[in-house]
Each structure stands twice: as C-alpha cells, then as structure tokens.
Amino acid sequence: MADAQYAISQWHDTEEIYTRLRELVRQPIRPIRRDRMSEFLNYFETKCVCSKALTEEAKQYIPGGVQHNLAFNYPFPLAVGKAEGPYMWDVDGNRYIDFLQAGGPTVLGSNYAPVRDKVFELLQTCGPVTGLFHEYELKLAQLLCRLMPSIEMFRMLGSGTEGVIAAIRGARTFTGKKKVIKVGGAYHGWSDQMVFGLHVPGTGRMEAKGIPGGCTRDTQEFYPNDLGQLRRLMALNRLRGGTAAVIVEPVGPESGTRPVPRDFNQKVRELCDEFGALLIFDEVVTGFRLGLGGAQGYFGVKPDLTVFGKCITGGYPMAGGVGGRREIMMRFAAGIGGTGERAYVGGTLSANPLSCVAGYYALLEMERTNAPLIAGRAGDRLTKGLNEIITRYKLPFVAFNQGSIVHLETSGVMLLDFKNPLKLLREVKPRKHMMEEMGAAYMSQGLITLAGSRMYTSLADTDAVIDDALNRFEDVLSSVEGI
Ligand SMILES: Cc1ncc(COP(=O)(O)O)c(C=O)c1O
Known about the structure:
This protein has helices at 14-26, 34-47, 49-58, 113-126, 135-147, 160-175, 227-237, 253-256, 264-275, 294-299, 326-329, 353-369, 371-392, 421-444, 463-477; strands at 80-84, 87-90, 95-98, 153-157, 179-183, 219-222, 243-248, 278-282, 305-309, 320-324, 398-402, 405-409, 447-448, 454-456. By secondary structure, it is of the alpha/beta class. The two termini are 43 Å apart.
C-alpha cells in the first residue's frame, strides 16, 4: 500500500465529506441566477449552430438523437470534431477543457500519439480482427498478471458490462451458490441482473423496465457502507441458496460519489471469507486510473475476481474483461469440448488484436510516464481550487476527489436515497435539473464535465490547464443565487 505509487495522495476524511453532503441535501437548492443562466444558454444558440443542426437531424434516425449515456443533452448535445490531450473541439470549432475524458479510459489524455502509432502499425499488418489468436492477447494478459498480483489469469471481453456478467456467472459456477449482493446506487453496467438499485440506493427494480423479475431475483443491494446490513443479508442467504459473490466499486458507488471509509473493502473481504462468498472488485473505473495496481493495490485488498473496462484498452473499442484466481478463471476456458462445468462467455470481437494492442501499449505508457500519479496530482489541484472557490463564495457545495476522479456536488441529487422516499420524489427532478444547468453552464465556459458533477483528470492536465479551468469554474460558481 505504498501511496507514492498511487493517484490518491491522501485518503479523504469520509465522515467529513458525508457531513457536508448531508448539509447540502438538507438545504434548498442554490441554482444559477436566471439572468446568468440565460446568458450561459445563449452560448449554445449562437456558438453551437452546427452541433444543433446535426443532433436535430439525428433525432429522426436515433432514439433521442444521442447514443452515449454520458453525452450531455442539455440544452442539446454537442457534436465533436476533434480531441487531443486535455482538449476537445466541437464541430463549430469551439475548444473545451475535457474533463469527461470519454468517461474515464484515457488517463494519458485524448488520442495519445504513441498508442495511436502502435494501433496504426497493427492495422496495417493484420487489420482489426481475425477471429484467431494474436500475440497481443498474451502480452496484455501477461502485463495484467504482472501489474496486479490477484490476477492469475485474464479473459478479455467486449465491455465492462460483459466483464460483470462473466464475473457473476463464474462466481455462481465456482461456488454453486445463488445470490449476488451489490451496493445500492452502484453502477455495474446494464446487464439484466445488474439494473437493480441503480444510481439511487434502495430503489431495487425501479429502472428495470423490460427486465423480467426472474432476472433480478437473486440480486440484492445494501445501503452504502452499511456493513451490518451486508452481514444480515449474507446470514439470511445461508437459508436461501447462499451468497455467490459481493460486488463492489472499491472507492464507492458511482465511482466514489458516495465514498467509502478506507477500511471498507477489507471489511467486505472478511465478510466474504466468513460466508464463503467471492469478492468481486469492479475496477472498470479504478483499474489503472488509481494506479497500475488498481484500487486493490491501493487498499491492499485481494479480490477473487476483478472486472476491467475503460483503461484496459486505453480508450479504444471493446474494453472489458475479467481476471482473478486461476481455479475460478479456468471456468471460462474457451474452445471445443466444454466439461459442463463451464461458465459460458463469448463475443465475436472479444480480445481482438486492435483492442489488445491498444491496451498493452496504453498500460506500458501509463507505467513509463507515471500517468496515474500525475493525473491524480492534477485532480488534487482541481479539488483544492474548487474548494477555495466554494469557501470564498460561502457556497454549500462539496468538492472531493479520489486522485484523478474529482467530484463536485452542487445539487446533491446523487445523494438522495430511498430511506426518505417523500424527499426523493419531491426533490429528484429539480435537483437533477439543477445539475443539468450546472453542466451546461460549465460547458458554455469551455469545460466539459461528466453530467455536471464529475471530472476525470489525465496526464495531459498541466498546472496551467487546471488553473485555466478553475477560472472558468469560478465564472459559473460566482453566478449562483444568493451570493
Ligand atoms: C464501475 C463500472 N462498472 C461497469 C461499467 C460498465 O462498463 P461498460 O460501459 O464498458 O459496459 C461502468 C461504466 O461506466 C462502470 O463505471
């Protein structure tokens, strides 16, 4: 647990963050003043004409006109023309500081040339896919085993969602048990069994439209950080098929939006051992972003299985996989002649050479440049600056970070839960709309965030980029009502 190798310079005071978040959610919202908001929205009408035309046309052919969950739709989506390092340009030529970073995979910054060169080289020799084995599959798997001691074998798949499906299937096959427990509010992709307790803890099947009840019958959730509830569930499960696995995002649900105390993962590990369940770390976001040893290296906790996504291909397509203990991983053995013990996984494009070469060189470059650590320090600088602005303007907002994962909570919508259903029903819409407005306001000032409340920093974020971003954030945050 040598912190010097990791993006997190110091684990935050989790209790203090929750105290501030609870206070934020207790208060009425503090949106941007209406006159200023009109000015911010006017930017889109006057400066983003080509984006508007393109995405309007797209509405006729694509449901909602936009396909990516993280694309920002308010007041309308932007169409991107170019991305490079810390910046993104829209099709109208406007430049933005890009803290979306594609939702997390590009710790080296966007369109990083040394990795792109290796991808071109491979495309010129064998193209993106052959259906047969390629040496880069081996190289990537070997590299993962070197970087993370819990990974004894690795199976590459098409996405984080697929990695989670495989991990759960493998856990059930290996343990012969049924139930899978997740943390309420956590996101583990969109498979039938994991659209459960999504975003808002305690909401169970609320988002599970089109998913038969049977698919989520063996999925359970517990309130964030409530280890007592987890223990009770696992004890009860002994009478109803047993707990196959507990799956966690190691920094907390929604990439640490609801952060964990530092010893949380160790305690979940102990409960899993006590009840004979597997511990699955979903490192889709944290894997390599927190450090090349992942969150498991930082916390010093060894999961049985680890799910990968995003950074595993450095931002190139088909990013997903699962790795872990050899005897569990052997349940995914491919090829003809299955034993009946096999947990079925597949995918025409899984482990294609393009994804593997990109991941292999991206991880090597991250190691060579110390990218996770540098991105983490940029996250620290951004968080410190945001908190200074918040203090200076006496705002109730909360900024905190886990290295290069930076949270800026202004509306508190992500902190509502089902323990107070009336408040949830009454406030979810206005708080969500405020978050949308904040995201649009940041964008009008040249800042792209993830849904107006999260920022991913990268190797490309120099002090000058962060300081420029802070000035832009201040233009928005100083326009809030009541200052
Ligand atoms: C923690 C976590 N798990 C799983 C997923 C799903 O990964 P993918 O979008 O590659 O299916 C995500 C995606 O954001 C994630 O953040």
